[in-house]
Amino acid sequence: MAGGDKLRNLGGFLSRLGAARQEEGKRPDTGSRREPEEGPLVASKALRKFLAYLGTRPTPILLDLGPVVGSNVTFFGEQLNCKVYIEDVFADLDRHARDRKLDEFPAFLSKRFTLGDGAVDGVLLWDLYDYLDRLSAQALATALVRLMRQDAALLGFFGSASHIGRGFTKFIVVDESHVRHRPYASVTVRQHAPQNRDIIKMFEGLRVSDSFLLQNNLREILFRKGGGGRPII
Amino acid sequence: MDKDVVNIGKSVVIKGELNGSEDLTVEGNVEGKIELREHVLTIGPHGKIKAEVFAKVVIVLGEIVGNINAAEKVDIRDNGSVDGDIVSPRVAIAEGAHFRGSVDMQKKPAAPAQTVKPEVKPAPALAQAPSGQRLAGV
Fold first, then answer.
1. Would the CB atoms of A77 and B92 count as touching at under 8 Å?
2. CB B31 within 8 A of CB B48
C-alpha cells in the first residue's frame, strides 16, 4: 500500500474514532458499564407517565419482573431515588418450561413473591403476560394486585399477532421516552396476543390509566390500583 | 505510591468476622461478616462469600450470598454473582452478571464517619491472616 493511502486510511480511522467519541460524550452518564447496543430503539409513551407517577412518591419501591439490566437499575435508582426489587419471572418461566413443569407454574407464581401486601409503588411487568397461559397469567395478576399499594402503577407491554412465536426480549431503558428491545435466548416463546378486554379483566382491582399503540404494534398499558372511573380503553 | 492491598488466597477459608483498614481482595471462602467500611473489597473470580458485607466500595467478580452495604459503590462484573440485597448510592451490574435481590440507591442523610482502628488479632488456626485484618473465629 502506498504511503498516501496509509495516511488517508489513518485519517479516516481517526475521524471515525473522533465521531464515535463525540457520540459517546452525548450519552447520559448512567454510572454503569455501557452495554452492547443491539436491538431496535423504540419510543415509549407510557414510561414517562410511569416515571412521573413514581416521582411523586418520596422513596418508591419498584418491582422489576424482568432479567436484571444494570443500566435500568441505575436509571431507576437515580431518577426515582427508589429501591428496586429484581424478580426475574422470565427466568422462572423458562426454567419451568425446560423442566416440563409448566403445569406447576400457576401455583409457583402464587407463592413467588415474599413482599408484603401493598408494599410496592410500581411494577415493571414488561411483556411477560404474552408468554403466560391463562392460569399462570391469572395467578400472576392476582399476586401483583395484592403487592401493589393503593394508587400504585403497573406498566405492561402487550404484543400483537405478529409477535407470536418470538422469544424473550430485554427492555433496556435509554431515557424516559425510549426503550431498546434486545432479544435474548429462551426456550419459551410468545403464546398469544391478548385482547385488551381480557387483559383488563385479568387485572381486576386495577384501572387503565393510559394506553398506547406503538408503531411496532406493541401496546403499552399503564394501570393504576384503585380509584373510580371506567377503564379508558 | 501503590495502596496496600491484602489478598486472601484461594485455599483460605475464614469463618467469622473480618474487620480491617486496608483494601482487601478475597479469592478464598469467607463465611460470616466482612467490615471494611473505609476501603475497597474485591471478591476475585474464585472468591466465595457467604456473609454480610460492609465496605466503601465492593467489586464482585466471584460470588456473594448475603447483603451488601457500600458507602460509595457496588460493581458486579461479568460472571460476578450476588444473591442478596444491596444498599449503595451507586450500583453497576454488568451484562452477564447474576443478581437476585433488591437494590436500594435511596439517598439517606450521611451517617457520622466511623474511625476504624487497625488491629491485628489472628484467630487460632488462621496462620495466613493478613496484617491489618481482624479475624474473629466464631
1. no
2. no
**Cα angle value B117/B118/B119 (rounded, 5°):** 110
Which residues share a beta bridge with A212?
A220
Structural domain of B62? 5-104
Cell of A192: 398469544
Q: Is residue B65 part of a domain?
A: yes
Q: List residues in chain B touching A: CB distance below 8 A.
A: 76, 90-95, 97-107
Distance between CA atoms of residues B102 and A83, nearest Å: 7
CB pairs under 8 A between A and B: 61
How far apart are alpha carbons B82 and B91 in whole angstroms? 12
| Averaged pLDDT score across all residues of chain A | 84
pLDDT digits (tens, 9 = 90+) for A183-209: 999 999 988 888 899 999 999 999 999
Nearest-CA distance from B82 to chain A in Å?
Answer: 11
For the domain spanning A36-225, the CATH number is: 3.40.50.150
Instruction: Parse chain A into domains and list their residue ranges.
Output: 36-225
Å from A70 to nearest chain B CA? 4
> B103: which chain A residues are within 8 Å (Cβ-Cβ)?
73, 77, 83-84, 86
Amino acid at B51: A
Residue B111 falls inside a structural domain: no
In chain A, DSSP assigns E strands to 41-43, 61-64, 83-86, 120-126, 148-158, 169-175, 178-183, 206-213, 219-225
- Residue B120, domain member (yes or no): no
pLDDT at A19: 43
Kindly report, residue by residue over A64-90, the tens digit of the pLDDT.
999 999 999 999 998 888 999 999 999
Phi then psi dihedrals of residue A3, to 5 deg: -60, -35
Q: B102: which 3 cell numbers? A: 433488591
Q: Full-prediction pTM beyond 0.95?
A: no
**What is the separation, in whole angstroms, between the first and last Cα of chain B?**
36
pLDDT band at A39 (very low <50, low <70, confident <90, very high): confident
CB nearest A84 (choices: B94, B100, B102): B102
At B21, list the grid cell.
483498614
